[in-house]
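User: Hey, my collaborator sent me this sequence without any context and asked if I could get a structure. I don't really work with proteins. Can you help?
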Amino acid sequence: MKKVSFAEFGGPDVLRLVDAEEPHAGPGQVRIAVRAAGVNAVDWRIREGQFQASRPIELPAGVGQDASGVVDEVGEGVSGVEVGDHVFGEGASTYAEFAVLSAWARMPEELTFEEAAGYPSVVETALRIIREVGVRSGQTLLVSGAAGGVGSAVLQIARDRGITVIGTAGVANQDYLRGLGALATTYGEGWVERVRRLGPVDAALDLAGSGVIRELVELTGDPRKVISIADLGAPEFGVRFSGVAGNRHEALAEAVDLISRGRLSIPVEKSYTLAEAAQAHIDSRAGHTRGRRVVVV
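Assistant: No problem. I've predicted the 3D structure and written it out in structure-token form, which is a compact way to encode the shape of the chain:
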């Protein structure tokens, strides 16, 4: 089978499309014929070696953790899913023709494979950081870098829970944020005062890693009310960096519920082939994403 792999840490040029042995489902796993794989910031952060100190991996390594596809192998002890089922979920080395998933759910009928691949990690992350930051119904959450996949999920989940959201993004994405129910403003010079004019902030999330942790603490008045998923230097300000996933099965079940109720929809901004994985990483790292990017197999 074909898969994307890298044998050394570095820039996108280290990615190679190689021939590899097919993986097989172990106990508690399923294997899918991959139809699409989600492109996440963690993919290129791992490729760059950013997490080697805390979560080392052996090289050569595959790329990707989110995927959608057709089940073609069911591991020991797995029930409730059969060969031929259409699923989406999380696993390892998902930029490939076949991948093993450790958490999955049946795809909502409303979604294509391409769309479904963009949900697993972003929804789990959004649910986790909303919980960790402790924001409640009736309060206001500030989201820095709100137009990407995680931001799109946070805005919609928060709205479903009665939380007011202020979102920052580029000029081109202001209407997009408003369409998701957020109070929108641009980042850049003067952004703190623009946020203040929109109202007091109870909690804040840093999704872009754009060096705004100090300002987020200032706006909330408490570093414990700020969470970052993108700035590894956040702990220097007393702010928690959230990078360890929670219960993926529960997150996928909640994603299915939200999608089925029409409360969550994340658009696919751009699709790539396996051979274009390096370009997908370049674009993801550049930011300015509206929704999701996916690799189509």
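In plain terms: The chain has nine helices and 15 strands. You can pass these tokens on to your collaborator as they are.
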